[in-house]
Amino acid sequence: MRHRARTGIALTLVLASTAVAAGCSPTTGRAPQGASAARPDITSCGRQLSFERPPERAVTLDQTSTETLLELGLQDRMAGTANLKTKIPAQYRDAYAKVPVIAPKIATGEQLRAATPDFVVAGSTDLYTKDRAGTREELAALKVPTFVSAVDCPQHGEAGKSPFELLFSDYEQLGRAFGAEERAAGLAREQRAAVAKAAEGASGTARDGERPTVVYLYSVFNGMPYVAGRTGLPSEMSRIVGARNAFDDMEEDWPEVSWEEVAEREPDFIVIGDLSERGRPGDSAAEKRRAMAEDPVVSELAAVRDNRIIEVPGIELDPSVRSVHALGLLAAGMKDLGYVR
What we know:
By secondary structure, this protein is α/β, with parallel strands linked by helices. Helix content is 37%, strand content 15%. The chain folds into two domains: 194 residues, 3-Layer(aba) Sandwich (Rossmann fold); 134 residues, Rossmann fold. It has a five-stranded parallel β-sheet with strand order 5-4-3-6-7. Strands 8, 9, 10, 11 and 12 form a five-stranded mixed β-sheet that branches. The chain has a two-stranded antiparallel sheet with strand order 1-2.
């Protein structure tokens, strides 16, 4: 208890000193071109967030959030990043190099405190815990707004909004917070067009009234496959392109299953998420192909025998600014496999 009390006091003092320093900074209140004069409130996972001025020292707690802010051109407003899972794409590298890395993996409360943030952004709620960056309640008490992707809490979004629309609402909400509304709106508009393009062939995929089934193989750990369940983004990707996720009956994002269960679903084709940059055993596409070829049951599936396999970057199968790229690869791969008439 004493340790937590000291941490809270220290964080209060550091954040207070940051606010004073910001008040003396000539860049305080600077907003990107197209920013509105008044700072509107935004909402995030059922919470209303208020800003006296656009954030100047944002910290992102995961790679997804980092790349979203970089795509919005906000690297000069970032005081730290954390939790890098794969290499930063070439288009973001120069901007990323300008932002301090406060933690190579998941950030702790101490590491976040040292960055003196005025805004914290994360893709999921599980990064805001007492043993990680601190709870949202703790940070709110210290006047630090915290943002969570709407994709991680769809119950607080508009009824019936698709995961991609929730993702696009993230861009728009963050654009309002930083005064980058025009850039955020442009990004959402561009990615909506990419989703629409991927959906163009969906109506022609059904054969005998049935959509082709797909298994998404995300990782293989200790010999066991992890696949996309109903609540993950791949189920929505499948719907958009006119396919059906074979594990839609499992209420998880990435459940562990057995190879026998994969074989029982008899997917028409398989999507492999290549996570080779992460570097864990079973992460690369080549290792996943080998695991399927060596399994006595799965190796007999027509999808494996006939190489009806599509490879996409694994990180793009989780909601991020890069997910529309994986969606495009999925649509193109289905066309190459003959599923789009």
